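About this split. The held-out portion is used to measure sequence recovery: a designer receives only the structure tokens and must propose an amino acid at every position. Recovery is the fraction of positions where the proposal matches the reference. Here is one held-out target exactly as it appears in the evaluation file.
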């Protein structure tokens, strides 16, 4: 089958190529989303699909053993064409897809939903897709969950667009700076007017200093960035204006990242590019200073998202993997108690089966809030996976553990009213105490708590089981 093209196809392809995502390796930020799609909708296949000129390429896929398909057989091509969510409840009953080879083959696609992924200019680059080999109906809650996950992917795309734009600006600035300094001594008179125009209109702060670090030139961007007017800054040293401890001058091909101080005392993260030259036998330095506050904020946001569970907003397994070794190190240093509680919800699968995954997600979010409210602010609650949670308790006496675990069981057992539906689950808890003298890794400590949880579950659920003690190597 041939494929129709959207009216903005040329601009769309240009935006896709500029994003530099095609034919790149898998990345956790996209793979987490496709895995969540399969869990939330209960489907075997999910993809982050990008529609190229003649192909559909998968940036991330679950349940698929191929990385791309021709565009003319891609369901996602219709999502791009219509620029709206596409839901196909039974592909064999849809004349657009009934003869599609990916539908007619054994175990082919019967159900499909695709949510558009748009650039910051509104161009549809591809879609977040879920597929099943059985016909099915997509609920309003499931479509809303898909849209939320697609928004996460879209946010990542927009972040990359901003970073690429910033890199282009920096590259353009560096290129302009290199051009300005090329044969500067021979061209200085002829290019003075052009140089002043570039400097005054530059987005970055520009400074020219002498060998003693005193300001010889100061553009409008520097005035705005640091709060000193040009006439106030001229002849003053950098140490009195923005770098109290001075500024090092390493390899000029490498930018310096450091903090500068504004006139009002506010510290500002900056990236400094510099170039030294001689003018009439005297050393001069040109500095271009770029405010990197927004870039650092974006990097911190990405780092936070990498350690946060999307559904519950609790710390995720990666965050736990970082926190637990730190807690164990404190125990070995201070000999204060540490307990790991591994919780698994009893009856959660029945909630999903009876009421759907959207209702199950609401229950998980509520359970996460309950656990956080039931422990101290200094304690650590993480979502391990699915309906499993881990709680780290530092400085809690052993005799207080059982009452606290019973409290958590009671908290979890309280019914949750969602509309006219009442949801209720219990929890089984495995408790592992960390002994400072034990040569035990974080993985082994978690494993002991996990095994104890399964013992509690097999013993009747809504129970607490203390893990067997860790092996301790005798001290010679």
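Reference sequence for scoring:
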């Amino acid at each position: 089958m041939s494929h129709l093209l959207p009216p903005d196809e040329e601009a769309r392809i240009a935006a896709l190529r500029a994003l530099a995502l095609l034919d790149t390796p898998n990345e956790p930020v996209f793979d987490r989303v496709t895995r969540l799609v399969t869990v939330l909708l209960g489907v075997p296949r999910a993809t982050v699909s990008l529609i190229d000129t003649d192909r559909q390429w998968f940036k991330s896929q679950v349940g698929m053993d191929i990385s791309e398909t021709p565009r003319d057989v891609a369901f996602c091509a219709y999502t791009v064409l219509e620029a709206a969510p596409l839901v196909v409840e039974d592909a064999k009953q849809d004349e657009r897809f009934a003869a599609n080879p990916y539908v007619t083959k054994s175990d082919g696609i019967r159900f499909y939903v695709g949510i558009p992924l748009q650039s910051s200019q509104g161009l549809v680059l591809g879609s977040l897709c879920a597929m099943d080999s059985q016909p099915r109906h997509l609920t309003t809650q499931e479509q809303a969950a898909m849209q939320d996950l697609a928004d996460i992917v879209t946010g990542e795309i927009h972040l990359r667009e901003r970073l690429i734009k910033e890199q282009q600006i920096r590259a353009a600035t560096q290129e302009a700076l290199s051009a300005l300094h090329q044969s500067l001594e021979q061209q200085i008179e002829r290019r003075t007017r052009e140089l002043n125009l570039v400097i005054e209109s530059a987005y970055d702060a520009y400074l020219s200093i002498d060998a003693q670090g005193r300001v010889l030139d100061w553009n409008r961007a520097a005035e705005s960035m640091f709060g000193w007017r040009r006439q106030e800054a001229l002849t003053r040293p950098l140490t009195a204006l923005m770098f109290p401890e001075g500024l090092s001058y390493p390899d000029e091909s490498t930018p310096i990242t450091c903090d500068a101080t504004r006139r009002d005392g506010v510290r500002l993260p900056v990236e400094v590019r510099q170039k030294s030259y001689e003018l009439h036998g005297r050393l001069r330095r040109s500095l271009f200073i770029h405010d990197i506050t927004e870039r650092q904020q974006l990097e911190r946001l990405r780092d936070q998202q990498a350690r946060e569970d999307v559904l519950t907003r609790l710390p995720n397994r990666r965050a736990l993997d970082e926190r637990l070794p730190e807690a164990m190190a404190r125990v070995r240093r201070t000999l204060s108690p540490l307990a790991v509680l591994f919780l698994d919800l009893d009856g959660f699968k029945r909630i999903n089966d009876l009421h759907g995954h959207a209702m199950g997600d609401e229950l998980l979010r509520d359970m996460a809030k309950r656990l956080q409210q039931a422990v101290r602010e200094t304690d650590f609650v993480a979502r391990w996976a699915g309906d499993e949670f881990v709680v780290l308790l530092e400085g809690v006496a052993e005799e207080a553990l059982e009452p606290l675990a019973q409290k958590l069981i009671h908290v979890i057992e309280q019914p949750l009213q969602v509309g006219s539906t009442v949801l209720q689950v219990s929890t089984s808890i495995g408790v592992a105490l960390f002994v400072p003298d034990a040569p035990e890794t974080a993985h082994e400590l978690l494993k002991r708590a996990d095994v104890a949880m399964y013992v509690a579950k097999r013993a009747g659920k809504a129970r607490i089981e203390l893990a067997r003690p860790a092996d301790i190597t005798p001290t010679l």
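Annotator remark: The chain has a mean pLDDT of 89.
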